[in-house]
Amino acid sequence: MSETKEVFGLFGAGGFARETMVALKEQLLRTRGPLNAEADYRVCFVDTEPELSEVNQLPCLKEDDFFNLPGRKFFNIAINESRLREKIAAKSEPLATPFSIIANSVEIGDGNQLHPSAIMSANTMLTSNTTIGRYFQANIYSYVAHDCIVGDFVTFAPRVCCNGNIIIEDHAYIGTAAVLRQGTASKPLRIGAGAIVGMGAVVTNDVPAGTTVIGNPARPMEPRNR
Ligand SMILES: CC(C)(COP(=O)(O)OP(=O)(O)OC[C@H]1O[C@@H](n2cnc3c(N)ncnc32)[C@H](O)[C@@H]1OP(=O)(O)O)[C@@H](O)C(=O)NCCC(=O)NCCS
Questions:
Q1: Which residue's CA lies nearest to atom 29 of ligand 1?
Q2: Fold classification of 6-99 (topology level)
Q3: Which class is 100-216 in CATH?
Q4: What confidence tens digit (pLDDT) does each residue in 130-174 have?
């Protein structure tokens, strides 16, 4: 057994974390070689209160146990709630290094700036000249097209179509299969901070900060439905 030089911890043990672990393992196989007794790296799930000591044959550690392991620690956070992600990031950054998880099938074109804390799930794409902030999550089959600017702690559910020239502010959540109409260079479409776009919405106009929109064309949810 070789000495462990690097430990990769993935916060979360729910559905998205288990899916993301598959992408992380393929990334490590690609960049570091097979995970076996000879490997000089280790991988684990990390949870505040683990219900199980193992998830899908990998250890699930309490956060302090992860931070106290020997070797250089790297982490990412596979948790949808962006405020919780922000809290875990603030606590973890002094103790470990964030890293991006990029599935093998991801396509990243020219001129993109992706903060090194993203999760790009299988079959996601950044086309060209996008700027993506901290702890972005792009779930399966989502894309971000040319000239978009995505803030910090933004979450995409599966199959989000984010067309060109769109600004998405911090902590926005875009639901499954939502379609965001392209903006223009002089008038980008804007999804405000903390806004929620419901699954299946077709967004044709700006969404104000903190607003939930649904439907085609997307409209704010009626308070009686909230
Ligand atoms: C928009 C959303 C955030 C609203 O959640 P909520 O506030 O809990 O709303 P509720 O489920 O109580 O639904 C309230 C009403 O809106 C309707 N509704 C909910 N989401 C809707 C949507 N996306 N499009 C159209 N109608 C929707 C419900 O049918 C319900 O209508 P009713 O009162 O006539 O029965 C949520 O439904 C959503 O779309 N989330 C994204 C889910 C997703 O993509 N998950 C991915 C997991 S990886």
A1: 225
A2: Rossmann fold (3.40.50)
A3: mainly beta
A4: 999 999 999 999 999 999 999 999 999 999 999 999 999 999 999
The model's pTM: 0.96
Give the pLDDT of residue 124: 98
State whether the beta carbon of 39 lies less than 6 angstroms from ligand 1.
Answer: no
Known catalytic residue at 146: yes
Residue from 161, 221, 226 to probe ligand 1 pocket by mutation (most atoms less than 8 Å from CB): 221
> Measured from the CB, is residue 213 less than 6 Å from ligand 1?
no
**Domain locations in the chain?**
6-99, 100-216
Catalytic residue chosen out of the listed positions 73, 146, 159, 171: 146
Give the residue from 68, 75, 6 showing the smallest Cα distance to 40.
6
How do residues 107-118 score in pLDDT, each as one tens digit? 999 999 999 999
